[in-house]
Amino acid sequence: MFDSIIQKDKELLIFLNNLGSEQWDSFWLIITNQFNWTPLFLFIIYLIFKSFGWKKGGFIIVSLIILVAFSDQFVNLIKDSMERLRPNNDPEIQHLLRHLKNPQSFSFISGHATTSTFFSIFIIFLLREKYKYIYLILFFPLLFAYSRLYLGVHFPLDISLGILTGILLANGYYFLFKKIVKKLFV
């Protein structure tokens, strides 16, 4: 059964990846680069300081830095434990994919999907009572994660389970965050 799931995962990636076209390649290369999202991150930082002030806002920013660092290391631990080849390195399907990037690290789970979802859900938890449109931030992890399929560097399961992991981590992290904030700022 597991082999069947993996095979379907590969087939779905091949289908999705081959929907791409040269006219959209540069767009998805821009989307996949986290540094190109800097305006969004700066806007979030602005909203945090506006909503919580300098002291609590500064604590939240440090918490976000820890969140990203933890998520990155957690994903690397999983990748190094699972050792699933990236699609662009999988000899069975690499010739069937459009290649725009060729990372050499392992594939499962997607760090882009995990960390962007973790970050976005945590931000929603923080700001949902102050900004009703904060839920629009969910476009960030969706686009960011899809870019990895478009580029052929992750399988759909890598993305799906990365998103699920990000949701679970955000819930746990927010629970701990609230407890710490209650002790420090009340």
TrEMBL record:
Transmembrane segments: 27-49, 58-78, 106-127, 134-153, 159-177
Residue intervals of the Phosphatidic acid phosphatase type 2/haloperoxidase domain: 60-174
Record-level Gene Ontology MF annotations: sphingosine-1-phosphate phosphatase activity
Database matches in InterPro entries: PAP2/HPO, PAP2/HPO_sf
Keyword annotations: Membrane, Transmembrane, Transmembrane helix
Top-level division of the source organism's lineage: Bacteria
Coiled coil: none
Pfam annotation, one family: PAP2
Protein name: Phosphatase PAP2 family protein
Lineage of source species: Bacteria, Pseudomonadati, Bacteroidota, Flavobacteriia, Flavobacteriales
